[in-house]
């Protein structure tokens, strides 16, 4: 079925910005596989969800694209004859694992959702995360910005502070958390070096 999924999703991702393109979906998919292997987990739902999770990208409509992506995934799986439990889990995982619906006080409904969230959050931090921020900022003419951090300024520098540097505290699996801490450290080093170079 994965060949059919790949063939179906590629045209959708071509419409997205480079920071949410097909390569991003594949990276999240591979992260799911790595976590499953290291944690001895079954992650079929999370792997399918990873491929669909950003299939729709709507500018300035936070959350609506996630719901739309989940709906497309569910419809596709129904048409493929997938059982109800699986397509419902995929639909739920895509929505509740998204940063748009993130609530640190709320527990997710399944291990598959935690798998998808950890895999997606890993793709959002470290060198991958920084490259995606730079790509999105360039495509949307968002300046990188300079220290000091001003919370409400729309700059790439502030996006890293507002979102990426907070993600480390929200990982579920030990394997993902260990990798997140390494990537978090690199982002800190990058920002420290950037700050030094702007003040020399």
UniProtKB/TrEMBL annotation:
InterPro entries, alphabetized: HD/PDEase_dom (IPR003607), HD_domain (IPR006674)
Entry keywords, A to Z: Hydrolase
Top-level taxon: Bacteria
Gene3D superfamilies, per database record: 1.20.58.1910, HD-domain/PDEase-like
Signal peptide region: none
Coiled-coil annotated residue ranges, if any: none
Domain HD: 22-85
A GO molecular-function annotation: hydrolase activity
Mitochondrion in keyword set: no
Name of this chain's protein: Metal-dependent phosphohydrolase
């Amino acid at each position: 079925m994965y060949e059919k999924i790949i063939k179906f999703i590629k045209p959708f991702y071509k419409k997205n910005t480079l920071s949410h393109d097909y390569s991003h979906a594949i990276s999240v998919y591979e992260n799911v596989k790595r976590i499953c292997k290291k944690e001895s987990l079954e992650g079929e739902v999370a792997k399918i969800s990873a491929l669909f999770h950003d299939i729709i990208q709507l500018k300035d409509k936070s959350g609506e694209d996630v719901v739309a992506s989940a709906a497309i995934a569910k419809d596709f799986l129904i048409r493929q004859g997938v059982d109800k439990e699986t397509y419902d889990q995929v639909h739920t995982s895509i929505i509740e694992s998204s940063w748009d619906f993130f609530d640190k006080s709320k527990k997710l409904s399944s291990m598959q959702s935690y798998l998808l969230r950890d895999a997606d959050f890993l793709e959002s931090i470290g060198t991958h995360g920084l490259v995606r921020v730079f790509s999105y900022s360039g495509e949307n003419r968002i300046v990188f910005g300079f220290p000091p951090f001003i919370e409400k300024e729309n700059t790439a520098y502030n996006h890293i502070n507002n979102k990426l540097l907070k993600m480390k505290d929200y990982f579920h699996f030990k394997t993902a958390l260990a990798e997140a801490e390494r990537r978090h450290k690199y982002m800190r080093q990058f920002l420290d070096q950037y700050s030094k170079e702007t003040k020399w």
